[in-house]
Amino acid sequence: MSSIYQPVERYHHSTVQVGDCLYMWGGVQPGLPRVHNNEKKKLMCSVVEVCHVSTGEWVQKPTTGDPPLGVSFYAAAVIRNEIFFFGGYCGHDKCYHNSLYSFNVDTFNWKELSPTTSYCGPWMKDGSGMIAIKVNGEDYLAVIGGCGLSFNNTPPQPGAQYSQDVNYQRCNEVHMYRLKSGQFIFSNSIGVFRLLLMADSRPTPEAKVKGLVSAINSLYNIR
Ligand SMILES: [Zn+2]
């Protein structure tokens, strides 16, 4: 009897489609070390599960480069042959990330585009949404909402709202990452950004991320 490969059980991960395949990475898995980083965590996070949609068969593939440390509650979006991963929960203590990584589905290589930092950019947070958009023919990633710590985090985004919960706060930040320049930008000079950054256009911090994403999508549809 031939054995059929099945990925290990997990939760708080994402599975995204690129072409005819589904790509599943990370999540909370049995035996995943609850540490910032060590060899075992890196080993467990250096594989991607691939499902061919036409056959329903899963295969596990090794990857090269360093995978993100935000292994659960991260946000993921696809542009062409690359999957982008933003932020997430590290899996120990109160450690959240605002790093952005790309994963190339042709080379299976990870690339850190923007490191985790408490100095600038989106909050270090989990539970964000992320969508890929084109503005004036250029690729952008919009990172929307999420939850993070109110202390030791990046400065609040002007115009964004933050819930009043103690320590772990929800927010309705909207950040744009411009692929061409490799930077999170803050600009209200482009119409669609102006729309997003207007306080009364934003979803409330209390809105669920799915609601945030659909609200943002509807903004794009009316531009
Ligand atoms: Zn950590």
UniProtKB/TrEMBL annotation:
It comes from the Eukaryota. Coiled coil: none annotated. GO terms for cellular component: cytoplasm. One of its GO terms (molecular function) is chromatin binding. Signal peptide: none annotated. This is Uncharacterized protein. It comes from Amphimedon queenslandica (Sponge).
